[in-house]
Write a structure and sequence with these properties.
118 residues, alpha+beta, Nucleotidyltransferase, domain 5
């Protein structure tokens, strides 16, 4: 039985989420990616709360697109600034089953460059 790309990504994500959990001391950065946009949330899984979020569809990122590396870096910088406002310094990176390549890797590198540790 042939599996679709989406099914394979969802299997990888379930496999990752068995071990990744966001705590109040070290919340989870959950990444979501489509062809046109990229978005991320910082989540405390124990309380079930989103502590900070950023997306390429926001008005403050009107001139950028999330479909390229530059857009991913811009969203990461916005998320990092919101994390600093919420006093978050260390996180766990949840790539959502996506390959650590291209926009996902650029997003993670930009978060590290802004001072988040993972």
């Amino acid at each position: 039985m042939a599996r679709t790309t989406r099914e394979l990504r969802q299997r990888r994500h379930r496999r990752l989420r068995k071990t990744l959990t966001g705590t109040p001391e070290r919340p989870r950065v959950a990444l979501s990616r489509t062809n046109k946009h990229i978005s991320a949330q910082i989540i405390d899984d124990t309380a079930g709360r989103t502590l900070a979020a950023a997306s390429s569809v926001e008005a403050s990122l009107k001139g950028t697109t999330g479909g390229n590396v530059e857009g991913a870096k811009a969203v990461a910088q916005l998320l990092a600034s919101r994390a600093k406002e919420a006093h978050i310094t260390t996180v766990v990176f949840d790539r959502g089953g996506f390959d650590y390549h291209g926009r996902v890797a650029a997003f993670a590198d930009a978060l590290r460059a802004e001072g988040l540790e993972f």
